[in-house]
Design a protein that fits this description.
Number of domains: 1
Distance between the termini: 36 Å
Radius of gyration: 21 Å
Order of helices and strands: HHHHHHHHHHHHHHHHHH
Helix content: over 70%
CATH superfamily: MFS general substrate transporter like domains
Strand content: under 5%
Mean pLDDT: 87
Shape: globular
Length: 430
C-alpha cells in the first residue's frame, strides 16, 4: 500500500499505532534482559556443579559477554541503519534466542564463556534497533517517554527472571531454565513480523498521527558513515556518558544477586523477592524521568534544559547508594539500590534520547551503537574490577563508592561537550 493510499484510508480518525510499536520494543527488551540475567541469578547455585566457577571466573564470563556486546554494538548500529529496523531486529532476536539456549548444553566455565559471548554479539542489536524505531515513530517531545517505556522492559525482565528461574530450576533443573527463557524470542518474532512497518506504509496510521510523528524531525537522505560521526563532539558526549554509567547498571544486574545471597545468607528462592523489588522500584524511576522532559517542554523550557535537568535529578538520586554496603538491614539495602537502579533507568531514558535530539534519524542507530560499544567497554572493565575487588577484599564498598559519584561526573562532561542540544554539524560526504 502506498503512503498516499494509507493516509487517505486513515483520514478522519486518530490512530495510536506508535504506542503499539513501543509495546513491541518493550517486550523485546524484557526478553533480552531475561536471557542475559539467567546466569547471574544461577551463579551461586552453579558453583556447586560447574568446576572452577567462582567470583573471578564468573567475572571472566561476564567480561566475555560485555566485550562481545561491545563488538556487536560496534556493527549493530550500522547494520540496523543499512538493513532497516524490521529486518535487522528480526535477524538479531532469532540469533540471540538460539544463543540464550546454549548454556543448557555446556558443563564448564569455558563453555559458559562461549555461550555468553554469542549472546552478547546477538543481543547488541536490541538498543540500536529500539532507538532507531523510536526516532522513526515518535516526535521529539515524546521520545524520552517512549524510550523510558521500552527501557522499563529491562527492569521488568530482570524482575521476573528470578521467579522464572526458580520455577524451572526447582521443578525441571537449571538447564531447562535456559531453554525456556531462550525460546521467548521466537514468539516475539512472529508478532514483530506481523505488526511492524514504517509509519508511512502502515495501514493503521492515520494522517493526523503521521503528521504528529513527522513533526520537528531532523532528516538526512542516506545513512551517515562512522567517519563523519566519530569527529563530532556530540558523538563523544554520548559515548563518554555511556562509558562511565553503563557499568553501574551491569554491576547491579550481574552482581546484585550474588551480593544479596552472600551478605544476607539468602538462597535461590528467598533472593527472588528482594531482587525483584529493586527492579520494581526502578520501573517507576524510568517512567518518571522519561516523563519529566516532556512536562518541562510543555511548560516552555528548552530541550537542552529539560533533558539535562532530568539527568541531574537522576544523578543526585544515585548518591545515597553509598550507604548500602554499611547497612545490615536487607530492606534498607533493597530501598537504596532500588533508588539507584531507578535513577539509572531514568538517566538511561534521557541519555538514549540525546542522539535522536541532535542527529538525523539515519544516523541514530550508528551513534547509539558507538555509545553502546563504549558502555560495553566500560562494563567489561568494571566487571573485571568487581571480580578482583570481591575476590581479594570480600568487600563491595569501593564499587558502591564509584556508583555514588560517576553519574555527576558523566553529566558534567556531557554538558561541557554539548552546552546546547543543537543539530550536530556533520562533515560533508566526500
Amino acid at each position: 500500500m502506498s503512503q498516499t493510499t494509507s493516509t487517505a484510508t486513515s483520514a478522519g480518525r486518530v490512530s495510536h499505532v506508535r504506542w503499539v510499536i513501543c509495546g513491541l520494543l518493550f517486550l523485546a527488551t524484557v526478553i533480552a534482559y531475561v536471557d542475559r540475567s539467567v546466569l547471574s541469578f544461577l551463579e551461586k547455585t552453579l558453583e556447586s556443579v560447574i568446576p572452577g566457577l567462582n567470583s573471578l571466573s564468573y567475572a571472566h564470563i561476564m567480561v566475555g559477554f560485555m566485550i562481545a556486546y561491545g563488538i556487536g554494538l560496534a556493527v549493530a548500529g550500522g547494520i540496523t541503519d543499512k538493513l532497516g529496523t524490521r529486518r535487522a531486529f528480526a535477524i538479531a532476536i532469532l540469533l540471540w534466542s538460539f544463543a540464550a539456549m546454549l548454556p543448557a548444553f555446556v558443563a564448564s566455565v569455558h563453555g559458559f564463556i562461549v555461550a555468553m559471548v554469542l549472546l552478547g554479539l546477538a543481543e547488541a542489536a536490541n538498543f540500536p534497533a529500539c532507538i532507531r524505531t523510536v526516532a522513526e515513530w515518535f516526535p521529539q517531545a515524546e521520545r524520552a517517554l517512549a524510550t523510558a517505556l521500552f527501557n522499563s522492559g529491562a527492569n521488568v525482565g530482570t524482575m521476573v527472571v528470578p521467579f522464572v528461574v526458580v520455577f524451572f530450576t526447582l521443578h525441571f533443573g537449571w538447564r531447562l531454565a535456559f531453554i525456556a527463557t531462550g525460546a521467548l524470542g521466537f514468539f516475539w518474532l512472529i508478532l514483530w513480523l506481523g505488526v511492524y512497518k514504517k509509519p508511512e506504509a502502515h495501514p493503521g496510521v492515520s494522517a493526523e498521527e503521521l503528521r504528529h510523528i513527522q513533526s520537528g524531525r531532523v532528516e538526512s537522505p542516506a545513512p551517515v558513515a562512522w567517519r563523519r560521526l566519530l569527529p563530532v563532539k556530540e558523538t563523544w558526549a554520548f559515548a563518554i556518558g555511556k562509558f562511565l554509567t553503563d557499568p553501574i547498571w551491569w554491576f547491579w544486574l550481574f552482581w546484585l544477586p550474588r551480593y544479596l545471597e552472600g551478605t544476607f545468607h539468602l538462597k535461590l528462592g528467598p533472593t527472588s523477592i528482594p531482587f525483584a523489588t529493586v527492579y520494581l522500584i526502578s520501573i517507576i524511576g524510568s517512567i518518571v524521568a522519561g516523563w519529566l522532559p516532556a512536562r518541562f517542554l510543555r511548560h516552555g523550557r528548552s530541550a537542552n534544559w529539560s533533558r539535562k535537568v532530568a539527568m541531574l535529578v537522576c544523578a543526585l538520586a544515585v548518591v545515597p547508594v553509598i550507604f548500602a554496603p554499611y547497612s545490615h538491614h536487607l530492606w534498607l539495602v533493597v530501598a537504596l539500590v532500588g533508588l539507584a537502579a531507578a535513577a539509572h533507568q531514568g538517566w538511561s531514558a534521557n541519555i538514549f534520547t540525546l542522539p535522536s535530539d541532535v542527529f538525523p534519524k539515519t544516523a541514530v542507530a550508528s551513534v547509539v551503537g558507538i555509545g553502546g560499544m563504549a558502555g560495553a567497554i566500560g562494563g567489561a572493565l568494571f566487571q573485571e574490577l568487581a571480580g578482583v575487588v570481591v575476590h581479594r577484599t570480600h568487600s563491595y564498598i569501593p564499587l558502591f563508592a564509584i556508583a555514588c559519584v560517576i553519574y555527576l561526573v558523566a553529566l558534567g562532561i556531557i554538558h561541557l561537550l554539548t552546552p546546547r542540544l543543537a543539530p550536530a554539524r556533520l562533515a560533508a560526504e566526500n
